[in-house]
Structure of Amidohydrolase:
Amino acid sequence: MRAIVNGTVHTVLERGTIDGGTVLVEDGEISAVGPDDEVEIPDDADVFDAEGHHVTPGLVDAHSHAGMAEWGEPEDGDFNEVSDPVTPHVNALDGFHPRDEELRHAFQGGVTTVSARMGSANVIGGVICSMKTYGDVADRMLVREDGMKAAFGENPKRFHGDQKDRQPSTRPGVAATLRQALMEAEDYVERRENARDEGDPFERDLGMENLARVVEGDLPLRVHAHRADDIATVFRIADEFGIENLSIEHATEGHVLAEEFVERDVPAVVGPTISSASKYELRNITFETPGILHEAGVKVAIQTDAPVLPQEHLDVCVGLAVREGLPADVALRTVTRNPAEILGIEDRVGTLEADTDADLVVWDGPMFELDSDARQVFVEGERVYDSERDDVDPREEYAW
């Protein structure tokens, strides 16, 4: 049993922040949260004094390739199965490498959960998974399968059209490819149900089984889309197929369509925004987007798209969004509770409350301020990082 005491505890719940608060941890879960004088600490508990520092939930990045893209070894990355533009049969869990250095950078920077996913080369990329960033076996790091990756815009056009000379080579081709796959999934569901009703044998298909979960609403569709016209096309197709379990990833021009997001109750996972316009669809990139979407009433999460941006700089992205108009009092929510709710893992992470995973970070200042440091990081109650104990002078690691 462990007790983190004397902290400025940010619950990210309606009860708000507790000054002089205690978080009690037992068997990897939070058992109690409250003021120091109201939480009873057993005599045998390991007590850690937060010294008044900020205690937050572990940060959650709702769009990452950490564990998939292999930090420093991109040739070994397993995040794009590019044999076909439609690959719903693949699963991120099978390519997740617990020893990817990006994951160590993640938890040392306070990021304890990521949605690790396929890349954006394919129109349909495969099943993606919410994963803890600390651990040694992927299956034990898995929180849940949280969606089906899809991609619009320049990436699938470039890879399949320009490089492979096959559909899709245009935006209409991308849209048609997604529509065709969803139509086939609907037909597959109907044939499967008819076979079950008649007691007939039925030949299963792994990709169609996964897409069936999308059209039936059991698995969210998570669509990479930067430009406003691509986002509008995603909404159009979702309307056609009755897909309500949906998120827009990147949402670079999401601020243009804020009311459309609100009307459909679709969340936006915004970023990575520390970027130049390396391609045409990024020309309107701005850190004002999260604030505009939040003000309109959209549920917003901020992402790094690691390793596009280093995973440990998720807090920096939040700080820049605050500078450009995101209210400081909702900043923490964009990388804790909001992404957890978007991913459907809010029963495990994203807040500090009883019966959730004991993933906590002790910061020596507000999380989103540039000079704040993650001093201590706990994952499921285990202290996995101590900045004084674990920081290494980079001059001592230089390899000639």
The first helix runs from residue 101 to 108. The chain has a mean pLDDT of 96. The CA atoms of residues 278 and 368 lie 26 Å apart. The radius of gyration is 22 Å.
